[in-house]
Amino acid sequence: AGVSSGEIVLGTHLDLSGPAAITMPPIRNGLQMRVDEANEAGGIHGRKLRFVIEDNGSQPPQAVRVVDKLIRRDEVFALLCPFGSGPGVATVKKTVDAGVICFAPYGAAALIRKASGDSPLLFTANLHYDTTTAAGLKWTLAKLGSKKVGFIYQEGPFGDLVGKGVKEGLAAKGMALAAEAGYKVGDIDFSSQVARMRAAGVDLIVGATTTRETIAVAAEVKKLGWSGVNVLTASPGRAGTTLSIGKASVEGLYGIGGWRITPASAQGPALKRWSDSYRKRFNMEPDDVALVFYDYASWFMQGLQATGKDLTTAGLVKTLQASSFKGESSYETQRFKDNHVDPEWCRVEQVVDGQWLPRSEIIDPAKSSL
Amino acid sequence: MGAFDSASLSQFVQLGLQGISTGAIYSLVALGLVLGYKATEVLNFAHGDVLMLSSFAAWYFIAEAGLSFWFALPLVVLLAALLCWLLEARVMRAIVGQPQFAGVMLTIGIGFMIRGGTSMVFGPDSRSYPTPWTGHATTLGGAIVADLNLVIIAAALGVTALLFVFLQRTALGVAIQASSQNQLASYLCGVRVKRLNSLVWAISGAIAALCGILLAPISLVDLSLWFVMLKALAALVLGGFGSVPGAILGGLLIGLIEQFSGVYLPDGFKDVMPYLVLIAVLVFFPRGLIGEAHGRRV
Amino acid sequence: MSRSHYQTSYAEGRALLRTREQRLLYGALAAALVVAPFAIPTFYVGEASFIFIMCIASLGLMTLTGFTGQVSLGQAAFLGIGAYTHAQLLTLGLPLPLSLLAAAFTAGLAGLAVGLPAIRVSGLHLAVVTLAFAIVTEHVAGRWKSVTGGHSGLAVPDPVLFGFSLGGPLPFYFLCLAMLALVLWLLLNLMRSATGRAFVGVRDSEAAAQGLGIHVARTKVLAFVISAAVSGLAGALLAHQTQFITPESFGLALSLQLVLMVFIGGMGSLRGAIFGALLIGMLPSLISLAKPLLPSRIGSQFGLELFVYGAVLVFFVLLEPRGINGRWVRIRGALDEFPLRRRGGFRRQKAYMRSERG
Amino acid sequence: MTALLSVRNIETWYGPVNAIRGISLEVRPGRIVAVLGANGAGKTTLLNTIAGVIDPAKGSIEFEGRRIDGRDADAVARAGVVLVPEGRQVFTFLSVLENLRMGAFARRRDPEAKRDIERVFEWFPRLRERQGQAAGLLSGGEQQMVAIGRAFMGRPRLLLLDEPSLGLSPLFTKEIFAIVQRIRSETNTAVLVVEQNAAIALATADDGYIVELGRIVAADSCARLRERDDVRDFYLGGAGGHAAPGAAQAARPQRRGASWR
Amino acid sequence: MAFFEVDQLSLSFGGVRAVRDVSFEVAQGEVFAIIGPNGAGKTSVFNLITRVFDASAGSVRLLGREITGVARHDVVRHGIARTFQNIELFEGATVLDNLMLGRHCAPHGSLLAQLFDLPVVRRAETATREVVEDVIALLDLAPHRMSLVAGLPYGIRKIVELGRALVAGPKLLLLDEPASGLNPEETHELAHWIRDISDALGITVVMVEHDMSLVSAVADRVLVMEQGQVLTSGTPAEVQSDPRVIAAYLGA
Ligand SMILES: Nc1ncnc2c1ncn2[C@@H]1O[C@H](COP(=O)(O)OP(=O)(O)OP(=O)(O)O)[C@@H](O)[C@H]1O
Ligand SMILES: Nc1ncnc2c1ncn2[C@@H]1O[C@H](COP(=O)(O)OP(=O)(O)OP(=O)(O)O)[C@@H](O)[C@H]1O
Ligand SMILES: [Mg+2]
Ligand SMILES: [Mg+2]
Fold it and tell me: Can you give the residue ranges of every domain in chain E?
């Protein structure tokens, strides 16, 4: 379904109104921009793309309804980067059961995969937080020589997964977690979590925190004048916005990166053109997240293109499984292995003078043995 | 035993101070709620959203328009007061006399509109702006507190004192309490009830704006700022609805409980402890810790 | 033709369908509901099942809030408890009907636990106690991994009855419809007998209720238990609808939606609960259907859904503070007296706030 | 002499219920005017309409030559027309003293207000004893005293009383009416009083109106009204207000269905 | 043993001694009135009898059974029903439902039976309805049967409340100022009803009342209270001529 002589219908559901709406604009814009570009270039094998975006409010029941709508009413051919672990887990089975491809959902990839019953129609491009965290943490422990590690995490699947990685990383070094402290989305104050870390005397805080909380934790550490400690944020906290909003308070912060952030000064001509085009389209500054989702969409378009005129679900699945991709946001070329992106390139970086600078090599967690 | 050696003592002081300064935020938000409730017996669920909107407005004036903080502060406070005045005069007034819950529903709707509207106008992403106190901290008795937190404590104290005097000592304040108890009788006494209600909402809006402006630099200008309303609600009920000192007490208690349970209890208790305490307290003090006298004569 | 109708026995006075017209009307409605799923696109069949589930939950809350006057801001917790119980028991192999019953029962027990403080606490204080309970429940659901699967969630087995799967859109539609009909019938019975009257009595005057021999505390707790049990049933069905349950499915947003349903529908009326669930339940879909009609500058703004949602709420509360049911009753009244009705009927008099403290 | 208050042909509705169907009446300065009528006749509605508590759908109300209909109740009160409403309506959580002070809210800067409180305490010594108590905890009669005292604190030129004797002891009912007369003679305040206790109302007032089904059916001086047979039958309980002992054994009167809607 | 006895009953609120050592006895079938100045403690005595307040001292007995310790909602099962000075009706319900609620103390089937509307419930409902209809007929409430209480005039509400208390089938009926707000004609009619209730239904009535015409018309005996204490008691005629009562209550 979803493919007619003149049109391919794609859909997604994002949190346009709920607690995660904050992070949605670059995601939506990145996806939309790639779709628009494809249409401007005459479509894919002559078929125009129609992209339907729905609001899931980060709520699973609501997500189930919009996915129903996308599948049954809009009859989409594929879902492109739907957002949220909860919504993803709740809807992926429905999606694949209806024969609809789910490409690069943004959320806990392992959980979504499990919920899908390991369906071949699901392609996950988002790194597994546990494996990358474990790899990044192992490198950091070796490099910084940290003795006691604490963990601040967001309650939810994201925090759980990073936590799993933290424990694995520590176990590999024969260490155990010295302290952990959770928080809820919407908490305004992280002093008690940091105080807990301090009371336990840790010298490395790992944060399963998104932008806002990463900044808050770093700022709290700075405020206390607590010098003997490093802060390492797992993937989503290591973003461009952390710098632009956090400013001085995030100086010195470590982060595990899952994609390349290229400072404006170092951008090549292709990236510059992309940035200008983005600015023009959306009247706002592009950021790394927008580029990541633009790249995901590109990978998908590449698959569509390569499948050829005779587009079927099975055909596309086959093409994607055999495809490889390197975008401006990828560290290195990646492909799909068992429908999951491989290798899961990651890198430990640090904020220096308001920029993420590489500290480690590019790591393949599957092979990392530090 | 040495359980209170100097290190743990200074940690204790640090937690206490931090608890008080977080609690002061809750108290300040709760105060705004109490005030609106006192006059119109409407629990304003849009209060947190006014607070959130104010922080966006402050960001706009300071970071975008480049006004100085000291100019933006009164401006935003004034605008928020105006907004709330209009809300009362144009919207809330239409359901006077309807069951109390109609007001709650209406403000929930208004809250959604404000949140949706803010996100439509400004976009949903978070941002920040500088204040004169950003990045400064003070050492007090071995504990370190951000200056901004001290300012918030001072603001909470100041607002409380003003409100207390206003409500208890001035004729207008007594009239506010009177109209909430019996609006009809208040009209019959010649009180300009409508204007008074709008005024109270305006003051409450001003307090929300003050909270928003002071809070945003700590937790960023963000759509989820309204969440603080939930904690304030808990504070309000813990202290006793409709009581100014109750709101302060409740807010501080919740702040302290969070801090101490965050460090001294196993992980996971911090977030639910305030609510567990709340339920326990209400079972023994059904009207909150310093709730109003009750009982209707039959 | 006059609609007046003379009753010839007391039993007739409490019959559910009193007049011929009513029997015809509701008969037609029932027939339509049975035929409809075969005639409409599958997407709408799924939507209808969801609305039925919301109707059940809304009826549950109406029992508590609309009839007994106890506001609950944490109703979603009971749905959650029902959903988790159901998912676990189904996984253990319990047959569907028993598991549904057990879900209602467990939620009812939780209702008992929350109801006990409610004996002493009232009004907004109670509302916040229930809110606190829901926050704690959600938290526990996230942490108690062995039972709930934590934030990773729990898969819900397909509903199977006598070896026949009810998971597909059509069978599930009829499962939900049947459950709704059952719950509605039970609650209608309850509300027209002594316990239902006692609920209203406790709501309107505790002093008088006590004087008439109503055990106020027990009645309040009973309302909590019944309301929670009905909500638990709704939760169990909702679990099938989402097929995978996570704690955030049962958060504050759902609780607020339920409160909005009973209020916008019209307090103190089962019909109101259904009206409210219809409106609030369909609103997100309606907004999403209407979005393509908007100019894309506005249609693509973030927060548009929330804004429109809020605006519709505000519109309805302002239009009819007593709920859709209130308007329904007035319109019906106006039709009944049609030629005799004089002007001024819909004009609103000045009104004054009456304190509910004390 | 021109009228202090003149009500012309007002009509008032509660949604679909037409409670007043065209009433006109006048109160001249310094006069006490009584309004009598069965339950549900529309007396309370009449007073509420004059006081601005509800709006008339038709007709005009003039006070001291100025239109007051359609204004809000607070504006009417400040104009000098103060209502003691049905059901007392005290501020339950405020003390007796604060209740009285609220009565003088519109003239809270007037130094005379203090003296007026003394005066109210003189009339109602019981209130002086209870001045610190929350008004909601007072007995029914005590609350009535608070309501009347509070209205007086507004120094009205026209006082509207809705069943002031409701729930008061016989002695106190007499006192209230004596006080009403005192207020009138000391301050030349005109009074419009609605009363079920027709005997005492007709004895105190100068002029009287009788309302039935939202219309005036009789208007005259009280002296003449007292003489009328129908008034005696219906409003004075047949024998000057006090049914003789044993009257209950008399034949049961047929209820006049018309006055019950 | 007297039918109904109140013995040395006392109540204080903080410093205010609202009721002090009040004792009286009422015989079966009697109409007994309590009068006294405002704030004398009459309503408080009613509230003590129906257990709204806990007495500081003293006891209340009906047919020799102690009432002072029973739960509030059990008072009616001991045969005592009351009305309230400020009318406590269920505003959101119809007159019929208000009256049906009056009979809550009668058996009405278990919760499960109610949920499934079993025959036992239907029978109980019909039985209740029959009692209610009798009262409706007695008090001429038929035209208002289906009206919402909230829109009724004051006088009708008073009667509805009286009816609700009657439906409970009490042995002892407490009426708090039943005639307040009624005009003389209606009061006159009320007098008949109270007599009917007492004579025809055999219910003992204790009422608090300020309208002496009603008291004279129906009361067998009168108790006069002042400042929480018993001032005197006697027949209506005796009491009305007592100089202390005239000074404190009736006025010259
Ligand atoms: N809020 C209301 N809604 C609907 N009808 C009302 C309302 N208030 C009064 N009425 C109706 O208006 C009519 C007049 O009522 P009103 O209270 O003015 O009578 P009243 O003469 O003061 O009676 P009473 O002696 O009982 O105080 C009555 O039929 C009453 O039922
Ligand atoms: N809950 C309370 N707290 C404090 N004082 C109270 C309370 N209830 C009653 N009182 C006081 O007790 C006294 C007796 O009140 P009660 O209501 O019994 O009087 P009453 O005889 O019924 O008077 P009325 O004829 O005016 O109704 C009053 O002075 C009243 O102020
Ligand atoms: Mg009246
Ligand atoms: Mg009394």
Answer: 4-79+170-250, 96-164
Reference D160, options D13, D46, D67, D9; nearest CA is D46
8 A C-beta contact, residue B52 and residue B114: yes
- Token pair of E203 as six digits: 């219910």
- Kindly state whether E46 is in contact with chain B, defined as any CB-CB distance less than 8 angstroms: no
- For D65-74, how does the pLDDT look when each residue is reduced to its tens digit (9 = 90+)? 999 998 999 9
Calpha distance B84→B82 (Å, rounded):
5
Q: Are the CB atoms for E34 and E223 separated by under 8 Å?
A: yes
Q: Is the dihedral of CA C107, C110, C115, C116 positive or negative?
A: positive
Q: Which of C345, C352, C358 sits opposite D136 (nearest CB)?
A: C358
The full set of domain ranges for chain C reads 39-346
The pLDDT of residue A148: 93
Residue pairs spanning C and D at CB distance below 8 A: 30
**Backbone φ/ψ region at E103: left (φ over 0), alpha (ψ -120 to 50), beta:** alpha
Q: What is the mean pLDDT of residues C233-253?
A: 91
Tell me the mean pLDDT in the region D147-153: 92
pLDDT in tens, B152-190: 999 999 998 998 898 888 889 999 989 888 899 999 999
DSSP H or E run through C190: helix C169-191
Task: Report residue D187 as tokens.
Answer: 């301050």
Q: Which residues of C106-115 are buried (b: 16+ CB within 10 A; e: fewer)?
A: bbbebbeebb
Residue from B284, B195, B198, B213 nearest B51 by CA: B213
Spatial contact of A189 and A242, defined as CB atoms under 8 Å apart? no
Residue B27: phi and psi, rounded to 5, are -60, -45
Alpha helix ranges (H) inside E59-115: 95-102, 111-115
Question: How many angstroms separate the CA atoms of A358 and A204, rounded?
Answer: 19
Q: Closest Cα to residue C121, out of B180, E52, B245, B238?
A: B238
Please list, residue by residue across A261-284, b when 16 or more beta carbons sit within 10 angstroms of its beta carbon and e when fewer do: bbeeeeeeeebeebbeebeeebee
Ramachandran angles phi, psi of C173, nearest 5°: -55, -50
* Contact between C293 and C107 (Cβ < 8 Å): no
How many of the other CB atoms lie within 10 Å of CB of A293?
Answer: 26
* Chain D contact present for B97, CB below 8 A: no
Q: How far is CA C294 from CA B209, C137, C289, E87, in A?
A: 33, 40, 10, 55
Nearest Cα neighbor of E132 from E111, E109, E101, E107 is E101
Locate the chain B residue with the closest alpha carbon to D139.
B297
| Residue B261 CB coordination number (10 Å) | 20
Tell whether ligand 2 has an atom less than 6 A from the beta carbon of residue E43.
Answer: yes
The pair of three-digit structure tokens given for residue B186, joined into one six-digit string: 């208040």
> What are the angstrom distances between the C-alpha of E159 and each of C152, D179, E132, E205?
62, 32, 13, 15
Partners of residue A44 on adjacent β-strands: A47
Q: How many CB atoms lie within 10 A of CB A349?
A: 21
The ipTM of this complex is 0.89
- Residues 31..60 of E with a Cβ closer than 8 Å to C: which? 50, 52
Question: In DSSP terms, which residues pair with E232 in a beta bridge?
Answer: E224
Question: CATH for E4-79+170-250?
Answer: 3.40.50.300
CB contact E243 to D (< 8 Å): no
Alpha helices (H) along A188-324: 191-199, 211-223, 240-246, 269-282, 288-307, 313-322
The owner of tokens 């409210």 is C276
- Which of A356-365, C131-140, D238-247 is the least confident region? D238-247
Q: Which CATH number fits domain C39-346: 3.40.390, 1.10.3470, 2.30.30, 3.30.70?
A: 1.10.3470
